[in-house]
Amino acid sequence: MRSVVALTLPAGAAQLAEGLTRRVDFGRPTKPENLHITLAFLDDQSDAALIAIGEELSTIRLPAPLVKVREVGVFGGGKPRILYADIDPEPRLIALRDAVRRAVRAAGIDLPHERYHPHITLARMTPTDTAAHARLARFLERYGPSASEPEPAIAFGLFGSHLHPDGVRYEPLALYPFAA
């Protein structure tokens, strides 16, 4: 099963992200129930691997990171692919991501080394859709400076990622609280 370890959104970031996706009139906006911050994309994993990953993740005892949307941006430069809400990479969030990667490796899963840019995917676009680019430019002009106040995250979790004709659907397999 395709899977991901992700941070669920606190109320303020969730409300901002949902409001922004409702205003997207181009590409494929992310459904509100799918909004999250990815900590580790696991790709396809067996049931046994997911159980092992879940056991390792359950040992993480860290304080809740603060989630703060800084602005809205795009990945892909002149050929935009993803509209996102940029998340402040504050130290507790980076510590959680590092702990998640260690836990996944301890479960026997090799993760590629990659630069981490915490974000919430708001919409996906076809890079060659020039009509959408004009609407995107207007959207960024109006909503690019959007931000939220920092709020502690509630939980992180292991999610199954199911591809459907109408987009991805995430299924929570396990949620983990933060240390008090």
Short description:
The protein is an alpha+beta fold and 180 residues long. It has four helices and ten strands, in the order E-H-E-E-H-E-E-E-H-E-H-E-E-E. The strands form three sheets. A four-stranded antiparallel beta sheet has the order 3-1-9-10, with helices on one face. A four-stranded antiparallel beta sheet has the order 2-7-6-5, covered by helices on one side. Strands 4-8 form a two-stranded antiparallel ribbon.
Integer tally of domains? 1
Q: What percentage of the residues does DSSP assign to strands (E)?
A: 25-35%
Distance between the termini: 32 Å
Question: What is the CATH C-level name?
Answer: Alpha Beta
Number of strands: 10
Radius of gyration over C-alpha positions, nearest whole angstrom: 16 Å
Query: What class would the helix/strand composition place it in?
Result: alpha+beta
What is CATH's topology name? Cyclic Phosphodiesterase, Chain: A
